[in-house]
């Protein structure tokens, strides 16, 4: 009997690892609601329109003229209110030649990536103590999954622009870019803490912090 309860508790806690299941057909986000809930309050269902379930413009290339040479165009709950409570979202990612989508994690989502154009080197790293780097080069039509929470990245290894579509298991996956949170926090993490962590000199660390 105890075993059954432990099993059910495990199943329940696993289900809770993703966005919660909806308790109604839909709950279009009411971005102007004053009430604070986990996610967004629902718009009055009788006032909901088809446009609340729609997003336009994903055929357009993102501007990759930046230091990383990539651009993420999100279609999360903020851009598509109808995603509220549905536990799913997507993004278009454009990469200039040799552009990268820098190492980052999604605190709330597993990601499945499809290459539409070009070729991408992708990878993720497992948790301690293995820190195994799982990496592969993907071509047009290839699909790759980045398990929830793990640090992952992509790099365009072709001579032309690359395009990918990512699907994510949260209406609001969140993103933690490793370089930004470590070197660009406000206020800064003390240089000597990072110097110890990265086994580098204070000067090297400050030089990186200044760039963020
Ligand atoms: C792309 O971004 C760069 C840098 O912010 C900017 O100078 C340029 O005008 C943008 N290009 C387009 C087409 O918006």
Our measurement of the CA-to-CA distance between the termini, rounded to an integer number of angstroms, reads 55 Å
Principal-axis shape equals globular
Q: SSE string, helix = H, strand = E?
A: HEEEEEEEEEEHHH
CATH topology of the largest domain: Jelly Rolls
**Average pLDDT taken over every residue:** 93
**What amount of the residues lies in strands?**
25-35%
Briefly note the structural class of the backbone: alpha+beta
**Percentage of residues assigned to helices:** 10-25%
GO molecular function: manganese ion binding
Signal peptide: 1-17
Binding site for oxalate: 101, 106, 111
Keywords: Apoplast, Disulfide bond, Manganese, Metal-binding, Secreted, Signal
Overview of the molecule:
- This protein has 212 residues and is α+β, with helices and mostly antiparallel strands.
- It folds into two domains: 153 residues, Jelly Rolls, CATH 2.60.120.10; 38 residues, no CATH class.
- The protein is 18% helix and 28% strand.
- It has a five-stranded antiparallel sheet, with no helix packed on it.
- α3 packs across α4.
- It is globular and about 60 Å long.
- About 5% of the residues have low confidence.
- The site of 2-acetamido-2-deoxy-beta-D-glucopyranose has 2 residues, from loops.
- InterPro entries: Cupin_1, Germin, Germin_Mn-BS, RmlC-like_jellyroll, RmlC_Cupin_sf.
- Pfam families: Cupin_1 (PF00190).
- It is found in: Secreted, Extracellular space, Apoplast.
- It comes from Lactuca saligna.
- One of its GO terms (cellular component) is apoplast.
């Amino acid at each position: 009997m105890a075993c059954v309860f432990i099993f059910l508790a495990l199943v329940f806690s696993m289900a809770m690892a993703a966005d919660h299941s909806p308790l109604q057909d839909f709950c279009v986000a009411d971005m102007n609601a004053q009430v604070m809930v986990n996610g967004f309050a629902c718009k009055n269902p009788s006032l909901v329109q088809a446009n609340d379930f729609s997003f336009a413009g994903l055929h357009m290339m993102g501007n990759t003229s930046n230091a990383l040479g990539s651009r993420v165009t999100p279609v999360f709950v903020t851009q598509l209110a109808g995603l509220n409570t549905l536990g799913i979202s997507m993004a278009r990612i454009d990469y200039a030649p040799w552009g990268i989508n820098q190492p980052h994690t999604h605190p709330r989502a597993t990601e499945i990536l499809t290459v539409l154009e070009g070729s991408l080197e992708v990878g993720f790293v497992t948790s301690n103590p293995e820190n195994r780097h799982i990496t592969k080069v993907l071509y047009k039509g290839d699909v790759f999954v980045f398990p929830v929470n793990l640090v992952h990245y992509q790099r365009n290894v072709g001579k032309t622009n690359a395009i990918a579509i990512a699907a994510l298991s949260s209406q609001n996956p969140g993103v933690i870019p490793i370089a930004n949170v470590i070197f660009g926090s406000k206020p800064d993490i003390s240089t000597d803490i990072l110097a110890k962590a990265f086994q580098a000199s204070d000067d090297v660390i400050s030089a990186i912090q200044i760039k963020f």
